[in-house]
Amino acid sequence: MRRPRFARHRTLAADGSAAALSALALLAAFAVLGPAVPAAASPAGCRNIIGGQPPSPGSPQTQLSGVTMVSACDAWAAGLTTINDGPVQTLIEHWDGANWTVVPSPTPDGAGELASISAASPRDIWAVGLDLGTSPVTSLIVHWDGSSWTQARVPSLGGSSELSSVRAASAKDAWAVGEVADSGGRETTLILRWNGIAWARVTSPTPGSGGELNGVTATSARDAWAVGQKFDNNHHAQTLTVHWNGSRWAPVPSPAPGIDSDLFGVSATSASSAWAVGITNKAGQHDHTLALRWNGRGWAQVPTVSSTNADLISNLNGVAATSPGNVWAVGAFSFGDDSRSTAVVERWNGSRFTRVASPGADGELFAVAARSAGNVWAVGRTAGDVEQALGLHCC
Questions:
Q1: Which of 75, 117, 121, 240 could form a Cys-Cys staple with 95, CB 3.0–4.6 A?
Q2: Local structure of 260: helix, strand or coil
Q3: How many domains does the chain have?
């Protein structure tokens, strides 16, 4: 499978190969327990802070991979954790306007992780990821009904599969995307849709020799985007953007600079305004951030702060837009393979990206959610021998 444990993206090497972190050994099971979800604080009492750190119940690894905001003082984050090098466990945390708390979440078959979370309402939230306790590994979907998280049924897909992103548009309309691999190992795109009763697979395009989807967004029942990568015959990666017009998914041309490019996140505010972010690599050079903008007619590359520095190894993992002039992108950069990564936040002000100062030098951000220009959460992990949950709140 593509996605390494404890990482939102894979690094694109100069020769086009993927350098991934090794998975932790699956040794024993344990349950992540936490207090009941407290009532959300009123907006007037919402703590306006930068750096409200979520708890890290496990050791040595805890990571938050996805975040969603129900309201100004009501947010959820999802990811994974381990205890004493044990098996990977799902992790879900809740922000009530003053504190983060761990909320019990199902880890079927003894091991699993969550990659993305999206709320349709305070009592209707979806999170998706990977069930690591099955052979082959399979997709995982869990649901919040206002009182508890429960596992949802995933349609039979055949082979191994994983879900990387979810977008809940309403109680009767949600999308989840990822990849599925056949017995021969060929990866193809995977799209599931929730109709209010059940999840079902929807036909999705896989141009080239294979592909996968890493992010999904929707503005209406007739306008949705999913992004990821497709592979050519030499297994070089190129950006993949596919669009839902209300009846089918179809590929849309998108810039793919360098010999390898991949998109990890996407966000749209209307049918004529969308953003996608990821990574690109030119032969013999470092990985660099990649940002694309949709104007209703086509995708175009937009310079980022990190992409203009040739000495940086950098990537963007997540993006959130509230308007054409307010877009947030998060990721990480470093100055070499042996240096720790630094969390990076960039903001589009309508004309260009600028770097936003963020506390906590070492780490990586995987996802961002925004309610407005002044209420944004970004989540990820700290760097070091013991990786802990990282959460940044602006402003």
A1: 75
A2: strand
A3: 1
277 found inside a domain: yes
What is the rounded CA–CA span in Å between residue 323 and residue 393?
19
H or E segment at 379? strand 375-382
Sheet holding 389-394, edge to edge: 363-372, 375-382, 389-394
Domain span at 279: 49-394
Q: How far apart are CA 145 and CA 152, in angstroms?
A: 11
Q: In the structure, what pLDDT confidence band is assigned to residue 37 with cuts at 50, 70 and 90?
A: very low
Give the whole-angstrom CA distance, residue 102 versus residue 379.
15
Q: Is residue 18 part of a domain?
A: no
For residue 83, the SS3 value is strand
* pLDDT tens column, 209-221: 899 999 999 999 9
pLDDT in tens, 291-319: 999 999 999 999 998 766 767 789 999 99
Q: Is residue 143 part of a domain?
A: yes
Hey, what amino acid is at 126?
W
Q: In b/e form, how buried is each residue of 286-296, taking b as 16+ CB within 10 angstroms? A: bbbbbbbbbee
Q: What is the CA radius of gyration of the chain?
A: 19
Domain assignment of residue 19, yes or no: no
Q: Give the residue from 277, 285, 240, 241 showing the smallest Cα distance to 259.
A: 285
CB-CB neighbours of 210 under 10 Å? 20
User: Of 212, 214, 218, which is closest to residue 193 (Cα–Cα)?
Assistant: 218
Would you state the structure tokens that stand for residue 104, as one six-digit string?
């019990």
Confidence of residue 13 (pLDDT cuts 50, 70, 90): very low
How far is 176 from 85, CA to CA, in rounded Å?
Answer: 30
273: CATH: 2.120.10.70
